[in-house]
DNA sequence: AGCGTAATGATAACCATTATCATTATTATG
DNA sequence: CATAATAATGATAATGGTTATCATTACGCT
């Protein structure tokens, strides 16, 4: 990315101003709703460009990729299969153990993604009721 | 699944006879190459049906779903981004810590997927050379 | 101002997966 | 056994997220 265009700045601002995990379509809709003019292809390219610079982070879910602010410490995700709510967590021991496992297998670790699935408190209660 | 048809039995046998992580297309091709007659739609349906019965397991990767034998103990995966090699591992402490984290957040945990990315020994050496 | 190049946006293409639907196979029933 | 009910198959269309194409526009620089 050589140019931080107005479109890319708008994407970055939108994501940085929230704690959500956005998919490309949500970003496009939010920007258009806010009066911006941006095509969906530009959103996809902008998200990829911003991520490659480390300005935003992403998680790859089963159906789609979701983007979030990069100015938070590394964390993993717990997703409610009932309502879609995403809870963040981090656990230093889990991180260290992963490095140990990689070392044992002679893997040069470059990244990881831990996603836990389940029901949030509300959805679990609703189900029990 | 009410009927374990010859097609579904063939899918199950193929997967059970290997340690690979198969995608739908690979399963279809392998069966056709082995002389079976099976359509790709039937493979997709068969894989889903077998999984829902717990007869096979799956991991959801970024681009596609991959299936494997279910008669192994639970494990997670480390994937080489160089050659695609998939290494399996399991770590009891990581499993327990996940349950603790879920309990703290009042999540009713139903599953998880931990994928580590990196370079296997061979690919790392190749890169250094 | 003019040139070189990166980015945009509409749209086509791609790819994995699911839906449709007529046909076939299997199971249940008389 | 014959036949009805229904589940599964397979060819193919459709879907949905994402990437590629390409003409046009915007930007940075001299
Ligand atoms: Mn997050
Ligand atoms: Mn495995
Ligand atoms: Zn929920
Ligand atoms: Zn490798």
Can you describe this structure?
Chain A is of the alpha+beta class and 129 residues long. Chain A folds into 2 domains: 6-69, Winged helix-like DNA-binding domain superfamily/Winged helix DNA-binding domain (Arc Repressor Mutant, subunit A), CATH 1.10.10.10; 76-128, Dna Ligase, domain 1, CATH 3.30.1490. In chain A, 43% of the residues lie in helices and 24% in strands. Chain A is built from 5 helices and 5 strands; from the N terminus they run αααββββαβα. The first copy, chain A, has helices at 6-16, 24-33, 40-52, 92-104, 121-128, and strands spanning 56-60, 65-69, 76-80, 86-89, 108-119. Chain A has a 3-stranded mixed beta sheet. Chain A has a two-stranded antiparallel sheet with strand order 1-2. In chain A, α1 (6-16) packs across α2, α1 packs across α3 and α2 (24-33) packs across α3. The longest helix of chain A has 13 residues, at 40-52. Chain A is flat and about 45 Å long. The first copy, chain A, starts with 5 loop residues before the first helix and ends with a helix. The mean pLDDT of chain A is 96. At the A-B interface, α4 and β5 of A face α4 and β5 of B. β5 (108-119) of chain A pairs antiparallel with β5 (108-119) of chain B, so a sheet runs across the interface. The complex binds manganese (II) ion (2 copies) and zinc ion (2 copies). Residues 21, 68, 75, 77, 88 of chain B line the site of one manganese (II) ion. The structure holds a DNA duplex (30 and 30 nucleotides).
